[in-house]
C-alpha cells in the first residue's frame, strides 16, 4: 500500500516537484485567456476552440481533433469510440489508463482488458502483445485496441524507443486492431527524440495529449484521430457531460501553451538532468537515481520513501512517495534554475 498519488499537500513557498500538473498560468497566459474570442462550443461555434482543434489535427498529422477537459476523459473517449463497448483492450499493467483512471474503461466504456507488464523502457514486449491478440476465437473477447503510454509515467517518464510504435502497428494492422497513445506527455517524448509530434505518433490511430502537464495550461487535453473517430468521440463526450460552452478561454491557454511548448519542455529536461546527475554525484548508497535516460522526471530509490518525502518537505521541497522504495520528482515550468539548486540541497539531506 502506498499513499495516494500526490500525498503531501502543497504549501506556499515550497519547491513543488510532485507533478507537472501543479503549474499555474503565467500572467501572459491569463491575458490570452481573458482576451479570447468565444462562442458556444456545443454548437461548435467557439472560434478559439475550433482553431485549437484544427491546429492540433495538423500538428499531430491526423484528420480531426476534439478539445476535452482532462487526459482521463480523452483516454476514455478513445476507448469508447474505438471499441463501441465491445471486446477488449490490451494495456500496460502500470499504465495510467489501467492503474489510475478508476477502471473507467470497464465501468463506462464496457470493455475488458488484458494487462501486460511494462518493460524498463516503457514498452510492452511485442511477443506478449502478439500472444494476446485475439481475433476470430468465439470463446474470447476480441481485441479491439492496444493502448500505449508515451512518455511512460511509471518508469519515470521514459520516451518509448522511436521505432517501437511501427513494430506494434505491424502486429496490429492485419487484424484491424487500433492503437491509442496516452500521450499526456507526448511533447516530452518528441523533444527527447528531437522529432515532431506528428512523426512520433504517425503509426497511431489516436492520441490524447494534456495541456495541463508540462505545457503549463490550467485545464484541457486534446484527442486526435480520423474524422469518423472524432465525430464519435464528440457524441460520447456529450454522454459524459463533457460538452462545454465558452471553452475558448481555456482553449486560449492551450494555444499559448503550444506556442511555447518546445522551449519550456527543453528547459524542464535540462533541469531534470541536472537534478538527476547531482544526486548521482552524491555517490551515496542511501539514495540512488533510477536512470539518467528520462525526460522531465527523476525517480530516486531510497530505503524509506515516506521519511525521505518528509525530510525533503522540511527542506522546502515536495516530492511524492511513488512506490515501495522510490520517490518521484518532476520538473516543470514553475521550477527555475534557482529552484533546482534548492532541490539539490534538499536531496543532499537524504545522504
Ligand atoms: C500518463 C498520464 N495519462 C493520463 C493522465 C490523466 O490526465 P488528467 O489528470 O488530466 O485526467 C495522467 C495524469 O497524471 C498521466 O500521467
UniProtKB/TrEMBL annotation:
Pfam family for this entry, one: Beta_elim_lyase
N6-(pyridoxal phosphate)lysine carried by residues: 213
GO BP terms: glycine biosynthetic process; L-threonine catabolic process
Keyword vocabulary terms for this entry: Lyase, Pyridoxal phosphate
Cofactor(s), by name: pyridoxal 5'-phosphate
Coiled-coil region list: none
Stretches that traverse the bilayer: none
InterPro entries tied to this protein: ArAA_b-elim_lyase/Thr_aldolase (IPR001597), Low_specificity_L-TA-like (IPR023603), PyrdxlP-dep_Trfase (IPR015424), PyrdxlP-dep_Trfase_major (IPR015421), PyrdxlP-dep_Trfase_small (IPR015422)
Domain Aromatic amino acid beta-eliminating lyase/threonine aldolase, first and last residues per copy: 16-300
Keyword Nucleotide-binding applies: no
GO molecular function: L-allo-threonine aldolase activity
Top-rank taxon: Eukaryota
Record's keyword annotation contains Lipid metabolism: no
GO CC terms in record: cytosol
Family of this protein: Belongs to the threonine aldolase family.
PANTHER family the UniProt entry points to: L-THREONINE ALDOLASE (PTHR48097:SF9), L-THREONINE ALDOLASE-RELATED (PTHR48097)
This protein's name: Aromatic amino acid beta-eliminating lyase/threonine aldolase domain-containing protein
Organism: Panagrolaimus davidi
Amino acid at each position: 500500500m502506498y499513499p495516494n498519488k500526490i500525498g503531501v499537500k502543497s504549501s506556499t513557498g515550497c519547491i513543488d516537484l510532485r507533478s507537472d500538473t501543479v503549474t499555474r498560468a503565467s500572467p501572459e497566459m491569463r491575458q490570452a485567456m481573458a482576451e479570447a474570442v468565444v462562442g458556444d462550443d456545443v454548437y461548435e461555434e467557439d472560434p478559439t476552440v475550433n482553431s485549437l482543434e484544427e491546429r492540433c489535427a495538423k500538428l499531430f498529422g491526423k484528420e480531426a481533433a476534439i478539445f476535452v477537459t482532462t487526459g482521463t476523459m480523452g483516454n476514455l473517449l478513445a476507448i469508447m469510440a474505438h471499441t463501441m463497448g465491445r471486446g477488449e483492450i490490451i494495456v500496460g499493467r502500470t499504465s495510467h489508463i489501467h492503474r489510475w483512471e478508476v477502471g473507467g474503461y470497464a465501468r463506462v466504456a464496457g470493455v475488458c482488458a488484458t494487462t501486460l507488464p511494462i518493460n524498463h523502457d516503457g514498452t510492452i514486449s511485442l511477443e506478449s502483445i502478439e500472444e494476446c491478440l485475439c481475433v476470430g476465437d468465439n470463446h474470447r473477447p476480441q481485441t479491439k485496441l492496444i493502448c500505449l503510454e508515451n512518455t511512460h509515467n511509471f518508469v519515470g517518464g521514459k520516451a518509448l524507443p522511436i521505432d517501437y510504435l511501427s513494430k506494434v502497428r505491424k502486429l496490429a494492422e492485419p487484424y484491424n486492431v487500433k492503437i491509442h497513445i496516452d500521450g499526456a506527455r507526448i511533447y516530452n517524448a518528441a523533444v527527447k527524440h528531437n522529432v515532431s509530434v506528428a512523426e512520433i505518433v504517425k503509426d497511431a490511430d489516436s492520441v490524447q495529449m494534456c495541456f495541463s502537464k508540462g505545457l503549463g495550461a490550467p485545464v484541457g487535453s486534446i484527442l486526435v484521430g480520423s474524422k469518423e473517430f472524432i465525430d464519435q468521440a464528440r457524441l460520447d463526450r456529450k454522454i459524459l457531460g463533457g460538452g462545454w460552452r465558452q471553452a475558448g478561454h481555456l482553449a486560449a491557454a492551450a494555444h499559448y501553451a503550444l506556442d511555447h511548448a518546445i522551449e519550456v519542455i527543453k528547459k524542464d529536461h535540462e533541469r531534470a538532468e541536472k537534478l538527476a546527475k547531482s544526486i548521482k554525484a552524491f555517490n551515496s548508497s542511501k539514495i540512488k537515481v533510477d536512470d539518467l535516460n528520462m525526460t522531465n522526471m527523476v525517480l530516486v530509490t531510497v530505503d524509506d520513501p515516506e521519511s525521505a518525502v518528509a525530510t525533503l518537505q522540511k527542506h522546502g521541497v515536495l516530492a511524492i512517495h511513488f512506490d515501495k522504495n522510490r520517490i518521484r520528482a518532476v520538473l516543470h515550468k514553475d521550477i527555475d534554475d534557482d529552484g533546482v539548486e534548492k532541490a539539490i540541497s534538499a536531496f543532499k539531506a537524504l545522504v
